[in-house]
Amino acid sequence: MDFLTNSNVLFYIIAYLVGSIPFGLILAKLFANVNVKESGSGSIGATNVLRVVKQTNPKLAKKLGIATVLLDALKGTVVLIVAIMFNAPTETLWAIAVLSVLGHCYSVYLSLEGGKGVATGLGVFIVLIPIPTLIGAIVWGFCAKVLKVSSLSSLLGLTAVILSAILFNNGLEVGSNAPMYIIAFIIYYKHIPNIIRLIKGEEKKVI
């Protein structure tokens, strides 16, 4: 019972369960009556929500896409902020961050399937390493505008976050870059199909 009443453990469980909430799937089903897991790329992320809903309702698609990004980001941000309010140590905060991204990518509510983790990763990084994350967001925005390829823009933005964090004296305050690398690895791993399509020149643009 002590295990279940330990504040750190409770935060870990909450982080994973909240991270697992498939907001993209819920919003698309609720407001557009479509199942994004059965359409487009099958992802629950904002890009697929935008692409699928756009086929029937372009105006609604943009709203749902933005809402999906914000809610997926907040999944990690809110739990971290609450943990900070309870004076959780930095090591605990990074564990919460990792579990939030894991929850999104391998949702307990979707038989361990999920999204690519970009928005949730952004949500946890902006709390823990804000300056590198802002740099990554600028890189992502520029690449998205110029390249119009969501996956490539996201991966370049993530890479900018990692490199910036290393450049700015790590910024992790836990004596190791490992938690940041784990989050990055999860996101890169989930993008392997996109990377393969990019290499083949088959990745679709977001118009």
Question: Could you explain how this protein is built, in words?
Answer:
This protein has helices at 2-5, 7-19, 23-32, 46-54, 58-85, 90-105, 118-128, 130-147, 150-167, 178-190, 192-200. With 207 residues, it is mainly alpha-helical. It has one domain (2-200). The termini are far apart. Pfam families: G3P_acyltransf. Keywords: Acyltransferase, Cell membrane, Lipid biosynthesis, Lipid metabolism, Membrane, Phospholipid biosynthesis, Phospholipid metabolism, Transferase, Transmembrane, Transmembrane helix. It is a multi-pass membrane protein.
Topology:
Blueprint: H1 2-5, H2 7-19, H3 23-32, H4 46-54, H5 58-85, H6 90-105, H7 118-128, H8 130-147, H9 150-167, H10 178-190, H11 192-200
Helix pairs in contact: 2-5, 2-6, 3-5, 4-5, 5-6, 5-7, 6-7, 6-10, 7-8, 8-9, 9-10
Catalytic activity: an acyl phosphate + sn-glycerol 3-phosphate = a 1-acyl-sn-glycero-3-phosphate + phosphate
EC number: 2.3.1.275
Keywords: Acyltransferase, Cell membrane, Lipid biosynthesis, Lipid metabolism, Membrane, Phospholipid biosynthesis, Phospholipid metabolism, Transferase, Transmembrane, Transmembrane helix
